[in-house]
Every structure is written in C-alpha cells, then in structure tokens.
Specification:
The structure holds two protein chains of two kinds.
Chain A: E1 3-9, H1 16-27, E2 34-40, H2 47-57, E3 61-66, H3 72-82, E4 87-90, H4 102-110, E5 115-120, H5 127-145, E6 157-160, H6 161-164, H7 177-183, E7 188-193, H8 207-228, H9 230-259, H10 264-291, H11 296-300, E8 307-312, E9 315-320
Helix pairs in contact in A: 7-8, 8-9, 9-10
Chain B: E1 2-12, H1 19-33, E2 36-44, H2 48-59, E3 64-69, H3 75-85, E4 88-93, H4 105-111, E5 117-122, H5 129-142, E6 158-161, H6 162-167, H7 178-184, E7 189-194, H8 208-227, H9 231-260, H10 268-296, E8 306-310, E9 331-333
Parallel strand pairs in B: 1-2, 1-4, 2-3, 5-7, 8-9
Antiparallel strand pairs in B: 4-6, 5-6
Classes of the chains: A alpha/beta, B alpha/beta.
Chain lengths: 328, 336
Amino acid sequence: MDLSIIVPLFNEEENIFPLYRSIVAALDPLAIDYELIFVDDGSSDATVARARQLARRDQRLRLVILRRNYGQTPAFAAGIDYASGDVLVTMDGDLQNDPADIPILIERVRAGYDVVAGWRHKRQDRLLTRRIPSMMANWVIGKVTGVPIHDNGCSLKAYRARMIKHVPLYSEMHRFIPAMASIAGARITEVKVRHHARRFGQSKYGLSRVYKVLMDLLAIRTLIASSQRPLIWFSMLAMPFLLLGILSILGSLYVAVFLGTMALPLASVGVLFFALVIVLVLSGVFADLLLHVGSARIRTLPLLGLEAVSLSAAGVEVIKKKEGAPDA
Amino acid sequence: MHEGMLSVVVPVKQTIEDFPDLVENYHEALVRTGFDFEFLFVLEGAQPEASAYLQGLEAEGRPFRLFQLAKSFGEAASLSVGFSHARGDVLMTLPPTFQVEPSSLPKLVEALQHHDIVVARRWPRTDSQYSRIKTAVFNRMVFFRGGLKLHDLGCGVRILRKAVADEVPLYGDQGIFLPLLAAQKGFAVGETDLPQARRAPYSTRKDGSLYLRRLLDVATVWFLTKFTRKPLRFFGMIGAPIAVLGFLLLLLIVIERLFFGVGLADRPALLLSSLMVVLGVQIIVMGLIGELVIFTHARDLKEYQVREIVNGRAEPRMSSGSKGCAERPDSVTLSE
C-alpha cells in the first residue's frame, strides 16, 4: 500500500459524499495503490450510515468507528494507527481542504521529507477574528518549538508512516505534530495549499484557549529540550532566578556596608531565590532520571534522522543519511 | 470465556448476620433469569463462618467460587480479583448486604441490553431521610457538571460487559466510580431503579474520615478524568496565578523604589512577593515533570476506543520495532 488518506469525521453527513468523490477524483489518475480511512469520531447524525454505504461499494474505504466523540487528536491517532500506507495524508472532513493538493504533498514526501505541512496561504476566513490571532499563534509556536511553519492549524499534512507511527499523539497535540515529529529527527517542509471557505461552525480564540495553548507550548518546549539534555533545560530555567538571587544578596551587602543598616528582607529574598535555583537544577536531574530509565527513550525517540526510506516509482529506495549531514 | 454466561462478583468485607439468607436470595433471583451463571465470592480478610458456609454450598455443587484475600484492600481490589477470574462475558457486582430487593435482579439483567454498564439506583428507598439526603448531596457533588447524571453511586449493584472491566482501570478505593470511568472511556452507562430492601438498616461504622476519603476520591476522579494527559494544565492552573501575582507585586515594589523613592530592602512585601514567585515556579516545574512522565508512557496511553472497523484489519498497524498496544475493537465487519 502506497498511500493512506486519513479523514476524521464528526457529524459530516452533508459533506461525506462530496468529500469521497473529490478524493477519489484526485487520486485515481495517479495510478497508485491507496486506501481511505474515515474515522468516525462519535457522530450522532447519518455520517456512519452513509460511510457504510460507501464502504460496501468501495473496498479501499476503511471505516474506523470510535466509541464516542474524543476530539481531533485521538481521531487522527486512530487513523494513523490503523493505516497501512507508506505515506499518510491527513485532512479535514469539512471540505475546507482540497484533495487536488494531495499529489503535491506526496511529491515532497518522495523527495525525502518526513512531514509535509499544508499552508493555507490564501485563507478564506475573517482577517481580524481568525487570521491575525492565527498568525500570532503560529509565529509564537514557530519561535518556541523551533519548527517555523506558517500554518500549524492546517489539517492537510503528509507524513512518512515509519516516522509518524513513532510519534506519540495525545492530549490536544494535533496542532503540534510537526514539533513533536522534530523530536524524532523528522525533516519538515511546507507547501502552499488551497483553502475553501468554511461552510458552518466557528472556533474561537478565547482566553482559556490562549492559556491552554501557552501551557501546551511550554510542555512541548520542555519535551523537545529534555529529549536531548533535560539538565541543561532546567538549569536554563533557573538562570534568571540565580541572577535575581545574586543581585538581592549584593544589594543587601551594599546596604549593610555603606548604609550601616541590616536589610533582612532583601537578604532572605536572595536566599529564597538560591533555594529555587537548587530545586530547579535538581528537577533537571530528576527529569534525566525519568527519561533515561529503561527503554523509554529508545521507544519514544527512534532516531529517524539516521535513515530515511523514500518511495519512488521504481519501488522502495533507501537513502542513507550520514550523521551531521545537512538535510536533503 | 462462555458466551452469555453471567459472573457475579460479591466482595465480602464483613459478614452480616443473615448472610446465608442473602446468598440464598441472590441465588434464587439469578436462577429465575434463566442465565448460566457463577458466583465469585471475594473474602476480604479471615471470615471463618462465611468461608465454611460457602464452601459447604460449593461442595453441594452450587456454581460458587471462593477467593480469600489476606486483608481488605478496598472494594476496587476485590472487584479486580473477581473480574480477572470471571468466566462469563457479562459481569455483575453485588454487595454483601441487603441493599436492594434480590428479587428485582432480573430487571437489572434486562437493562443491560441497551448499555455497556448499568448501575442500580435504590429507589424507592426505605431507609431514613438522613441517608437519602447524604446520597443526594454526594451524587450531586460528583455529577456537578458533565453530561452523565447518576443518582446512587454508593449502590454496589451493577452489571457490566467484560469489555468494560478489561478496559477500565480501577484505582484503590474507587470501585464506586466505575461507571464514571467507564463513561470516560466511551462506554454507554445506564441506570435502573431497583427497590431498596425492606430490612432493618445495618449499623455500619460511620466515622468522619469516610467523608474526607470520599471527598478526596471525588477530587482524584476529577483529576483523572480531566488532566491525566495534560498535567501541566492542572499544575499551571494553580502555579501560574500565584507566580504571576507575585511577579506583579514584585514589579510594583521595584517601581515604587525606582520612581517614588520608597525603600525596598526592608519591606516585608518584598519577601512575600518573592515567596509567591518561588512557589508558583515550583508548582509549574512539577507540572513539567508530570508532562515528561506522560511523554515516556505516551505509547501505552491510547486515548480512543474503537467500536467497530469496516473493511479493515482488527489490529492496528504499527511500524516494526514498536509493539502495537491499541485495544482490539469490539467488532470487525467485512462487507463483500
């Protein structure tokens, strides 16, 4: 199997037939062996019944029905787990992505990339309420994770199966899949894709969402940094407090020597910050312990940077990548 | 595993006086359901009388099996022991006391048709107004929010499919939260009214620590159902406001020193604000450690449960080198 198209569906009864037709229309001319994986994320409408109709007629359509509505990340994770293609393409079920872009994505994977992210460069959304917050979020995500992708929210992405099946997907990670994949040494690129206007439904950037994204970012930054050297990351977190501690102690010494009075609160603050520094550094030691015990590290970080399997028309070809060599 | 067999697990913490009577009543009620069934009694700690009595019945050829635990490890532990030895594909849990009229059990078995787990609600009640209010308050607290609404978690009469027991982890003292955790895993949870038994209430030991434990259990379950995969969001919720508040206070003090000439070095507020920053940062760092713990176990944590696969394999396809660990779906359909 060359290709699996993974589409999570949640109450998409109106969209499922057009979606199926447009995917098939885009892929049939390519003469590749592919499958469609529709993941039903606990729909309460006729989505499942209609998907069954399609599955009866088309053996290439696999339908994975989840017990209830879990959300996008688990639905993608289910699709990825049950897919058997060498290249996996994920997309939205609401016709916002255009299946006609899939061949371009596959092309980039064949060129040697592990993750190809779609970039909706002409977004059909409101400027002020959606595009500007999204641009800011993407800029921050790019800075923090070190994976500068313009459009993390775009579901249309292609992955090398060997790589993505090793990347742990949980919580609300689908936004950060490229960042998570970078932990495993994935080579990442992006291509511009088409974007159609949303027919219904709106997601909002509320304050609670900002908090969640910030916390998730901090978590992912920690994971990325810790996958190499947790001690260094936690020590870096401690640096500002070390500086504050030193300043406080120096300040209290200054007061004591030149003004002749005791500055007890300031001295205590210095000691307090030193204590925090010690706790943070020891947390780093603790993190090191967690990540290096048993097989945890090997299982989660398969070190894919060393070798990449690429699909070509002639068959499977292995590109050996030398350690330290620049990305293809 | 026997198709259509009912395994009844009875955790026996302490034996009541009319225990033989209770066992007979349960047995009769289950005979009337027409199901093939077995009883699994889990004795928590030495209970020579009950043990001798049950062994006697077992020798007579009743489908009774006995398990002896060294001491009481809580209801959840006993249920786990029972579930793991059960032969049937439908499981029932029964309390070792008269909580409901045993004659109403067939109704419970029927209720399972449309659900994966059904819990009994003691209704109509025959006990005091005080215990009714207690039940109502406790359950309101647990189901304060969320779609699921049950009325009587404390009732030990439940029926469930084997798949529920296989996939829902039971923690220590939390047997009563089984339906909640099952709902979180995506199983269909139902409730059915069974009349409370008309017997004199038992003088169960009621100390204040029980209420405290229940309260902590509610907090634990809330944490488990909401934050298991995102510990930083939980710790951040506590740590971030403390750290931010401390930081703002610190900033205020520094500004006062720089521009308004208020002394800095001898202000207790300085100590307070720094303490808040330190505490907040420490709490957040605990959350970060939690994230690392989750990350190292991420492969074993499947967040989704599959109900059915159409046109596909039953097993998820993992790349070579990693063990597939997703659970099997309930059913696989192959259409021609």
